[in-house]
Design brief:
A hairpin with a 4-residue loop joins β7 and β8 (166-169). By secondary structure, the chain is mainly β. The protein is 10% helix and 63% strand. The strands form three sheets. Strands 1, 4, 5, 6, 9, 10, 11, 12, 13, 14 and 15 form an eleven-stranded antiparallel sheet that branches. It has a two-stranded antiparallel sheet with strand order 2-3.
Length: 396
């Protein structure tokens, strides 16, 4: 007992010294801060801190600037019709037919050959799930051909034009006059969209992971598309003197006409991105516009039978727009692309882009030289452009 009592104070003093050391070390350890907020203890902690700030994990580029060369061809068709402007006689009974029974009309088909168009796209990501982009493109190098049809449509009737003894038996959009011309095309396009990312797989990602990543977006935006065609070097292919004097077959001088297709309105769509290991990626984007505004402006410098007033001796207004078309329409466009990134800041891509616009049941206002005008039905109007593209994307 005496031995134990003698040693206890020495043991107690050691314990007190150890406890004091622990007390001194622990506050020092707790007080040791990291040198700054950007220093992370691990890749996982860095990712977590970035997500708390709302910037998103590193697999989402904060900015993309794309430059694409689109090798595509365009086509536009406008078709207007009006009731047959002369009485139809059956025996001793004559009447003015309804448009559904017999009609005349004008269809112009603009077809471009393939040519390059430069398209720029800039996308800025402001949040892990939200980004905005602006896309603009244009080209003034399109060349092609325009066919100007004047037709008769009376599918259940036989029409005999007595003065020239011309017979049409159940004509179905049969041409009675057709002229062709060379055209030069000018294209402009502009759109802006807001993308919301609804699906992210995997949910968390480290730059060191070698795995497939996937993202799915919905978006809404505004689009504008315009084709302007300049017609020249006319050539009369079909000549028929049934109702009007048309040029004789062969080339004719003086053609210098223009027509412009203009579409604009809101659209919405979806986009999906799949990123593979080793720098490969696939992207698909599809958009639909349910209600677009169409405006068509024709400046025809040669008189032609576009409305009933022509057969009463009226002449088209010269020196500006003499056919003003309006309608509501819709559009669909789709894009698919494959890309490869040799470096983190750059990718090269190859893809296909398709755009289609359609409208109808609108109005074609014909303007005459005496200041008067006449409204006929715009039956149908379409615009289309499609082709492959290549490009480069700079990103960070």
């Amino acid at each position: 007992m005496s031995v134990s009592s003698a040693r206890s104070p020495r043991w107690a003093r050691g314990a007190r010294i150890l406890a004091a050391a622990v007390v001194l070390v622990c506050p020092a350890a707790r007080a040791a801060p990291w040198s700054d907020d950007n220093t992370a203890r691990s890749d996982y902690e860095r990712l977590s801190r970035q997500e708390r700030r709302g910037g998103g994990p590193s697999e989402f580029d904060a900015m993309r600037l794309s430059m694409r060369m689109w090798i595509g061809k365009g086509r536009g068709i406008t078709r207007s019709g009006y009731p047959f402007p002369f009485p139809i006689c059956q025996g001793l009974t004559c009447y003015m037919p309804l448009k559904s029974v017999a009609a005349l009309g004008n269809t112009v088909d603009f077809a471009e050959r393939e040519h390059p168009m430069l398209v720029f796209n800039y996308e800025l990501r402001v949040h892990r799930r939200l980004s905005f982009d602006v896309e603009a493109g244009g080209s003034g190098y399109g060349m092609g051909r325009a066919d100007d049809h004047h037709w008769i449509h009376a599918p259940d009737s036989t029409i005999i034009y007595v003065p020239t003894d011309t017979v049409y038996r159940s004509p179905d959009n049969q041409d009675w006059s057709l002229s062709r011309a060379l055209l030069k095309g000018d294209t402009r396009m502009l759109s802006s969209n807001a993308y919301f990312r609804v699906l992210i797989l995997p949910g968390k990602y480290s730059p060191r992971e070698d795995r497939i990543r996937q993202a799915f977006d919905v978006f809404a935006g505004y689009t504008l598309y315009q084709d302007t065609f300049h017609l020249r070097e006319g050539n009369q292919v079909i000549t028929n003197n049934t109702w009007s004097q048309t040029p004789p077959e062969g080339p004719f001088e003086g053609l210098d006409s223009r027509y412009r297709f203009h579409w604009e309105g809101f659209r919405f769509g979806i986009r999906e991105e799949v990123v593979f290991p080793k720098g490969w990626a696939l992207t698909g984007r599809f958009a639909y516009a349910p209600d677009l505004e169409f405006l068509g402006e024709g400046a025809w410098n040669r008189n032609k039978p576009m409305a009933p007033g022509f057969f009463d001796g009226m002449e088209l207004k010269q020196g500006g727009t003499n056919s003003l078309q309006t309608a509501r329409g819709r559009s669909f466009d789709g894009m698919v692309a494959a890309s490869y990134s040799p470096w983190n800041f750059l990718s090269a891509e190859l893809g296909y882009l398709y755009m289609y616009f359609k409208g109808g049941k609108g109005t074609d206002k014909i303007l005459y030289s005496d200041g008067s005008s006449e409204d006929i039905e715009l039956e149908r109007v379409t615009s289309k452009r499609s082709g492959f593209f290549t490009g480069l994307t700079f990103k960070y």
